[in-house]
């Protein structure tokens, strides 16, 4: 028993995180190949308009997140974490297939736009239910005193998925001409994502039994949250604004940002993006360990303050030099800063809710915030341009999001004792 249980827990972590990896991989490659997707699937227009249209479709997935959080978060609390994780993985697969096989606008006309939007909506619903069930599963199944480290794998897998997306993008841009990428090459990353999904479904099916044992009793979670946990919901929303905005603005959008406003070659930006996400993986796991030792609130408080003041001077370096070495350093610093907050966030937000409504509480707060501040970040930042009154637009965006996060961390919601995975239902 002593040898099987640790292995089972490791497999459970992998099963919980594989869907998160697929979610962020699909979001990452969509952002990386947004200009090519726009040319293939949207009506002809000028390049900036096409890019903005494509990024707005990217944001459409974020709009669907609250619906996924409401439906799948309640399902996870009522029926079990495992069945929900399997369902989110399957929905992501259908959405990815829609994008992969979507016919070009030149052939299908408006039908290609409809198929693209349906694919993004399904991906958004899947992503909306993913984070709550996976985070609840990880913190509830962790060994004593290691809930923060276990939950930090959610954000570490985001870094791994971004690395996978950047690696695929770097290979595509290295081996295919721009004309080949525009014609069919942009579909290759989505084909890879679709091929991984059956593995995720199988792994989650094998992990579903222990997850059901941890499922909470059936209840209308949103009603309980509204009546008994308003303070926790508002605190979680404040934290989730930064949790959503920072990765989108400073990680996912970064390659497009440097390409659009600094004239950096796509291949060079993807290489820097790849190295930056190594720092995201290492930093997220480190933040999880620090959260277990010092408390999630302290780690998030320090990192939120740093995200308030440091992104602007770091990004300003690119106005002086934007060589590959400089870009790797900038991407690494930004990814590490983001990792310190997002690595501790799953534990910090999970501690705000009792087990019976934990998946719903995490999913709803995170996905409402992401739908407001995350998914449309690339489109908003593209419209704002390089700088806003001398401040890099991406840095300004994150600094604004840091303010409600700092307010939430100083609120009475965090005055209770440190998080206990199996604490009393309150």
Give the overall pLDDT as a whole number: 80
Question: What's the Cα radius of gyration?
Answer: 20 Å
User: What structural class is derived from the secondary structure elements?
Assistant: mainly alpha
CATH topology: Growth Hormone, Chain: A
Give helix and strand order, one letter per element, not per position. Answer: HHHHHHHHHHHHHHHHHHHHHEEH
The CATH H-level homologous superfamily:
MFS general substrate transporter like domains
List keywords for this structure.
1% strand; symporter activity; 426 residues; cell membrane; transport; MFS_trans_sf; 2 strands; 22 helices; mainly alpha; symport
What does this structure look like?
By secondary structure, the chain is an all-alpha fold. The protein has one domain: Growth Hormone, Chain: A, CATH 1.20.1250. It contains 22 helices and two strands. Strands 1-2 form a two-stranded antiparallel sheet.
Structure, briefly:
This protein is mainly α. Helices cover 80% and strands 1% of the residues.
List the helices and strands and how they pair.
Elements (H helix, E strand, L loop, with lengths): L3 H29 L1 H8 L5 H17 L1 H15 L1 H20 L4 H4 L1 H32 L5 H29 L2 H6 L4 H19 L1 H6 L7 H8 L1 H23 L1 H9 L3 H29 L1 H14 L1 H6 L7 H19 L2 H6 L7 H16 L3 H8 L2 E2 L2 E2 H17 L17
Antiparallel strand pairs: 1-2
Helix pairs in contact: 1-5, 1-7, 1-8, 1-10, 2-3, 3-7, 3-20, 3-21, 4-5, 4-7, 4-20, 5-7, 5-10, 7-8, 7-20, 8-15, 12-13, 13-18, 13-20, 13-22, 14-15, 15-16, 15-18, 16-18, 16-22
